[in-house]
Amino acid sequence: MSEKQLTKAGVFIIESLSFADEQHKRFEGQLIANILDLNLIPSTYYYIRTKRELDEVLDLFDASNYRYLHISCHGSNTHLHLTLDDLTFEEIGGILRGHLAKRRLFLSACQATSTNLIKTIIPQSACYSVIGPVNNIQFRDAAISWAAFYHLMFKSDPKIMKRELLIKNLQKVVNTFEEPLNYFSSSSHNAKGYKKKLVRVQQLKYQSAGEETNGSL
Q1: What are the start-end ranges of the H helices in 114-212?
Q2: Residue 67 has what pLDDT?
Q3: Which domains does the chain have, with CATH numbers?
Q4: pLDDT tens digits for 197-210?
Q5: DSSP E strands, 17-169
Q6: Which end of the chain is more exposed for a tag (fewer CB within 10 A), N or C?
């Protein structure tokens, strides 16, 4: 069956931040959810603090039948950090694998979207793809860039995210905000079970309004 037949297009957002982030109201996921609502894009938002809550909310994700899971939290090259629990990549892979069949994961966590995490998720889960930032990223850039990405994707096709369109719109977002993204997708032709595409900033050349097309003065 196709992606469209198994699930429905909608974004399920799970967010978990530090106490300092909460105090300063840096709720990136909540902002994204508000913008999705403004665009009439189906979405659900949950804020959690613990691994136990993550387990419970992932069951709600299953029940929603939404196709896109967006997780917003702090990350590193070895862990995802919830408010009160730190999860190794092996732990988070074990938690997520049973919930991602024929779905896509969008991970807004610094440095975490790497091969070390992906190898614990995609090969055993039938997950279509995992996408997230390569480097550390500011809250303001993350919130606006993810909102822009979802806006572009649902405006282009409100029912399904095709690979070609994904890459096209990821490139637009990367060029605009100058934050590279890793795009890991499942692959039956790769021994690892997945392949990686680094979406880099492309330097675009613009011609100034007063410049002659023949290059003459």
Answers
A1: 115-118, 122-125, 139-156, 163-177
A2: 98
A3: 7-199 (3.40.50.1460)
A4: 999 999 765 555 44
A5: 43-47, 66-75, 79-81, 86-88, 104-108, 129-133
A6: C
